[in-house]
Each structure stands twice: as C-alpha cells, then as structure tokens.
Write a structure and sequence with these properties.
Layout (H helix, E strand, L loop, with lengths): L9 E7 L3 H13 L7 E4 L7 H4 L24 H9 L6 E2 L2 E2 L3 H14 L7 E3 L3 E7 L2 E6 L4 E9 L11 E2 L8 E2 L17 E4 L3 H12 L6 E5 L26 H12 L7 H11 L2 H6 L3 H19 L4 H12 L3 E5 L2 E7 L2 E6 L4 E4 L1 E4 L7 H8 L19 E3 L5 E7 L5 H4 L5 H15 L4
Parallel strand pairs: 1-2, 1-8, 2-5, 8-19, 9-14, 10-17, 11-12, 11-17, 12-13
Antiparallel strand pairs: 3-4, 6-7, 7-8, 14-15, 15-16, 18-19
C-alpha cells in the first residue's frame, strides 16, 4: 500500500490493472497533467506497463503487426518505428512485408517512454489484486487479495486479458510438468525436448508464437494443433492504407452486415495484399455499425463469422507463418479440426480426447485457447453493480467508456478500457485501439477526478 494512503483515506482515481491499457491511460493523463501523478493509484502485478503481450521476455515472440502501426500518442505516430530503427538490433525482424519486432523490444520502448514522461515516478503503484468491489454513496470500495481496502472517487477497469485456464476436463493423475496452462511468457519452451510430440490446443497467435519458436530451436518431434475450424491465421502482407469504406446507415441485421462486408471485400483470398488493404479500410468505421446492432443480431453475427473475423483481424507475423508452412510441408506440423473435451494419462503420454471421440497422444499439451473470464468482473455482475453485455459474461460499456448500471445508464465514476470493451464497442483490442481509448478517457477523467 502506498505510504500516501491509509485505509481510511479516499483515492481520487484508481486504475485496476497494470498492463498495457493501464500504461496508456497513465501516459495520457500525465502528459496533460503531470502534477496529478500522486492522485493516481494503479493496482496490479509487477512489472507495471507491459502486461501479457509485452512483458514476455522470450526472444522468439514477435509483434504480429508492422512497427509503424504501434503507437501510444496519435500525434506521434512514427515514434516507435523511429526509436526501433536506432535502438533495436534484430535483423530477423525485417521482411518484405515490414518490420515485425520482438514483443519484448516494444516493452523496452514503453520503459523509455515511461522515463521520458514527467510524473511516472510519483504514481502510486500497488502490486496486488482487487478481488471485490462495492459502491456506497457514489464511492467505490475495493478489497485487495491481502485483505486491505481502498476507497476511490473514480474507478477504471483496465484489467486486460486474464490468464488462460484449461477449456477441458483434466484427469487427476496428469503430470503437471507436461501441461502448459498459461503459455504467454514463453518460458515453457525451454523445457520441451527436441523429440517431444507437442499438442497445441487452439490455433491463434499464441500457438503461432510457439510453433515459430520450436522451429527456431530445431525441434524435430511431431507438432499437432487442435483448432475449431482447422485453419491458422493468414500471413500479414505489406498492405497499404486506403480511404475508409463508408458503411450504409441502415444496417440493422447480421445478414446485412455480412453481405456488405463480403461485397466490399470482393475476393475471398485473404492472402492477397489488396484484400488486406480493403479489410483494413473496412475496419476504420466498423465500430459505429457494430454498435447500432441489437444484442441478438450481434450474437448472430458472431456465431456466423466470429472465428473467421479473429483470424482475419489478428494475422500472423511473416516469420511465424513461414515457419508453420515449412513444418506443414515436411509433415511435422498437422492441423486437427475439432475441440478437446478431456485430457487423460495413457501410459507415459497424454491422451487428448476430442468432442467427437477421436483420441491423440502427445508428450506435451499447450493451452492456446485465450484468456479466461475476469473474476472481478464476474463478482461485479453477480452483485448487480453493472449491467451485463450481450454475452452475459462481461460488462455493458457505453461509447463514452462508462460502465452501465443495471438501468443501462453510464455510471459517472466507473469506466473501462481495453479488451473488455470489445463485446460492446467492437474492434477495440489492438494496441492502437487501446491507446486511442486511453487518450479519449484521459480527457474525460481530467474533468472529474
């Protein structure tokens, strides 16, 4: 607990979460009001500012977008790229498609930015976890994992993605050293023997990172990826920025949304530069169209194209994609369409049982199915402190980034940014989108805390 606060004092502003979204919000607040640094308390695990994406120290885990897309301040769009050109020695980052630097090097850039901005050293950083929240007399009472309590006038949820949990049943006798529940750090890769048969459960960017790293370290064992639709993310091309696609004003159904998107994209070949350029042009105004759909239409659209959208949106770094294609061509990487229902022990190996009954043996199983539900969010929903989103699993968030109460009105002192806003607001999970949210929210907070 910071010395500046006792359990009886009231904090002007508390940000829950200590990852990238929290860093961006602090950076924008301090850029305009560095003198308010001591009024800001940030609660979350150390180290501050990197989160799961950029706190990874493994040298093979790379950004999946080009350097020029990574930005914190809208008026400094080339800041990271220019810094990287002189400060990063990484010849493998450069491809015809652009520069795809290591995640840890973007973390280094954040550290540099932190020291450039006045006030970061005066923030109240609390290395802890908020396990519950309550609201009385328009003040938020927070209980920490250590039992300590904090009261705040304004609360921002910037918790990012919660660590993954297994999506399937695990037998009780499984050897723990053969299972990787949270693969984000990459440290588990050093424990994989070259001949191990490795099974990835899920086939998104985390799996692509793992495949690339195994290829880099000369892995010769079989690699299998169990994924719902049997396809990996496409490779990033050197797509160019086009004028934004203007969406019709009268889109109110999932079918209308999908038809317009399909017509605008034309070709179905997402490996083409022209397709990716057009797709990015579609994304510019897509959120306002998403937000005007009713909940059921949003749910219907996600059932129809949600998985495809995730793959198209989060395309693979060229290094990762090329490594996967090489392994597939030699037969050492196999894609298995399906979902894992259970993992049990069979002799000295793991046995993955799919929902349709198929079984596959492996020496190691790596969970790449994405983040787990946020426990604090679940508690707030259960206690009626906020309205649920269309899925019923997260918070309903207004376009002003205010979390809605049970009457579906934005609360004046509870806000959210980052990953948890995507369900309500649309395409809001990339680094650039999070930084833009932080900029907008910082301007609002400057007036109320």
């Amino acid at each position: 607990m910071p010395a500046a606060f006792s359990e009886n004092s009231i904090c002007p502003l508390v940000i829950v979460g200590s990852g990238f979204a929290s860093f961006c919000l602090a950076a924008h607040l301090l850029r305009d009001q560095p003198e308010r640094a001591s009024d800001i308390t940030i609660i979350g695990p150390e180290p501050f500012g990197y989160g799961a994406a950029y706190g990874c120290s493994h040298p093979d885990f790379r950004l999946n977008v080009r350097a020029q897309i990574m930005r914190i301040f809208s008026d400094r769009p080339t800041d990271f790229r220019r810094w990287a050109e002189t400060e990063i020695d990484d010849t493998a980052a450069h491809n015809p498609q652009g520069a795809f630097y290591r995640r840890k090097d973007f973390g280094r850039y954040l550290s540099v930015l932190r020291h450039q901005l006045s006030g970061f050293d005066r923030l109240n950083l609390v290395s802890n976890e908020v396990i519950s929240a309550d609201k009385t007399d328009n003040l938020w009472q927070l209980v920490l994992a250590t039992g300590q309590q904090l009261t705040t006038k304004a609360l921002v949820l910037a918790t990012g993605n919660s660590p993954p949990r297994w999506p399937c049943q695990l037998a009780s006798d499984l050897p723990a050293d053969r299972l990787v529940e949270n693969p984000w750090s990459g440290q588990w890769l050093g424990e994989i023997a070259k001949t191990d048969k490795v099974a990835f459960i899920g086939g998104g960017l985390t799996a692509m990172d793992g495949i690339y790293s195994l290829a880099r370290q000369g892995h010769i064992g079989q690699i299998e990826v169990v994924l719902p639709h049997g396809i990996l993310p496409p490779k990033q091309t050197d797509w160019q920025t086009e004028p934004p696609v203007i969406w019709p004003d009268n889109i109110t159904t999932a079918s209308q949304f999908f038809r317009f998107m399909k017509h605008s994209l034309g070709t179905r070949d997402w490996t083409q530069t022209s397709w990716q350029s057009r797709f990015e042009a579609l994304r510019i105004h897509i959120n306002s169209v998403w937000q005007q759909l009713e909940d059921e239409e949003q749910n219907r659209l996600m059932r129809q194209v949600g998985h495809w959208w995730q793959l198209a949106r989060f395309r693979s770094a060229p290094q990762n994609f090329d490594a996967a294609e090489t392994l597939r061509a030699t037969g050492r990487l196999r894609l298995i369409k399906g979902r894992v229902r259970q993992i049990k022990k069979q002799d000295s190996q793991l046995c993955l049982i799919l929902q349709d009954g198929r079984e596959y043996l492996a020496d190691r199983a790596v969970n790449c199915t994405g983040p787990a539900p946020d426990r604090l969010v679940q508690q707030m929903l259960a206690d009626g402190l906020a309205a649920p989103d269309r899925t019923g699993k997260s918070l309903r968030i207004a376009t002003c980034l205010g979390v809605m109460d049970r009457a579906y009105d934005p609360q004046n002192n509870l806000f959210a940014i980052g990953a948890m806003t995507a369900s309500c607001l649309g395409d809001e999970v990339g680094a650039g989108s999070v930084a833009k949210q932080a900029e907008e929210l910082a301007a609002k907070l400057a007036k109320i805390f």
